Amino acid sequence: MKLANRITEINGGGSDGWDVFYRARQMIADGAPITELTIGEHDIGTSLEILGAMHDSARGGHTGYASVPGTDSLRQIVADRIATRTGVETTARNILITAGGQAGLFAAHTAVCNPGDRALFIDPYYATYPSTIRSTQAVPVPVRTTPDAAFQPTADALAAKAQDAVSLLINSPNNPTGAVYSQKTMQAIAQVCHDNDLWLISDEVYDTQIWEGAHLSPRALPGMAARTLVIGSMSKSHAMTGSRIGWICAPEPVIEVLIDLATNTTYGVAGYIQDAALFALGQGPAVEEAVAAPFRRRRDLTMEVLAGQNIVRALPAQGAMYVLLDIRATGMDGEAFANALLDAEQIAVMPGESFGQAAAGHIRVAMTIDDAAYVAALQRLVEFAKTCAD
């Protein structure tokens, strides 16, 4: 008996990029006191008020089948939020509620890519991007960025890969680099999409975590609303990672076919989860700002810890809950450094190579533990790096 190629080839025959994370989790299971700076999991957890709304909805009976596209009220509040933030007219018919941003990424590529189609994405990238594209039987094609250009994709790099492609996946604020794409970058992206008739899939799950600059959704640029699918999520903005609830915002004809896909895959998202999301969004931007505040603070603490030495350098962290650190001065690549740090200091970080070759020689640090513990871990990391460079 043989499994389908679409399953066995999801990771392209190699690692899925999570090896150090899995090893750290096994060490924790074995009783080791590991400091985890790996994944984007808030240290505050989902608020008791949101959990209360979830509890009340479940106890109130919203535990049966929910509307597959999402409840009318949740789709409407998401549409209103997007319209307010972007200035682009958006209705509930532009919204599909999904089981988190990851499900949205898969659904979006399923909607626009046929088997064998070339689907572009920016390198460095969130670890699941190429495997998500392979899951739809499209062909992932990286567009490389560089630290010297602050990991902003250039028009030339995009145009060089765009011929015969059908889609482009972008992520701003960016995981893992922390880059917030400038207006110039977004305009270049839009131009390449127009010139090459590309669908644009814009992963905007970190849009509430902006430390420098401003978030620009490419859907707001001239002519882009008709070719852009935006992925959103409650995970990062409201610390609802485990609730698995997000959305796709897209032209109505795209949403209509995506509803067909949802009917034959997830069959919707649990009603009490949707009601909790509705409650959370109804609390307004102040809640989102409070959830983001610790990461802004820790970004500044990172700069303070790294000041006065040049063995570990931080890339400009303009947004998101991570910092990407350049450790090439140690003479090690990111994977070797991350494994050595885990063994020597019991600190777990993600190798840059988990996010593509453009991030080789870097590590990604998630700013997801309390301030004092974070500063102490970062200081130990710097001291360890110094010993490696000696």
List keywords for this structure.
390 residues; alpha/beta; Aspartate Aminotransferase, domain 1; aminotransferase; PyrdxlP-dep_Trfase_major; AspAT/PAT-like; Aminotransferase_I/II_large; L-aspartate:2-oxoglutarate aminotransferase activity
Write a brief structural summary.
With 390 residues, the chain is α/β, with parallel strands linked by helices. The protein has 14 helices and 13 strands.
Q: Into how many domains do the coordinates divide? A: 2
Task: Assign the CATH architecture of the largest domain.
Answer: 3-Layer(aba) Sandwich
Mean pLDDT across residues: 96
Shape: globular
Low-confidence stretches: none
What does the main sheet amount to? 7 strands, mixed
Portion in strands: 5-15%
Distance between the termini: 54 Å
H/E element sequence: HHEHHEHEHEHEHEEHEHHHEEHEEEH
User: Numbering strands along the chain, what is their spatial order in the largest sheet?
Assistant: 2-8-7-6-5-3-4
Instruction: Work out the radius of gyration.
Output: 21 Å
What portion of residues is helical? Answer: 40-55%
Number of beta strands = 13
CATH fold-level label of the largest domain: Aspartate Aminotransferase, domain 2
**CATH H level, superfamily name of the largest domain:** Type I PLP-dependent aspartate aminotransferase-like (Major domain)
The CATH C-level name of the largest domain is: Alpha Beta
Oligomer: single chain
